[in-house]
Amino acid sequence: MKRILLAAAVAAVAVTSAIVSAPEARSESPASKWTVDPVHSTVLFKIKHLGASWTYGRFDSVEGGVDAADDGSAPSAVRLVVKTDSVNTGNDKRDGHLKSPDFFSAKQFPEITFQSTSAKPLDADTTEVTGDLTLHGVTKSVTARVVRVGTGSMQGRTLAGWETTLSLKRSDFGMAKMVGPVGDDVTLTVAVEAGK
Question: Which domains does the chain have, with CATH numbers?
Answer without folding.
Answer: 29-195 (2.40.128.110)
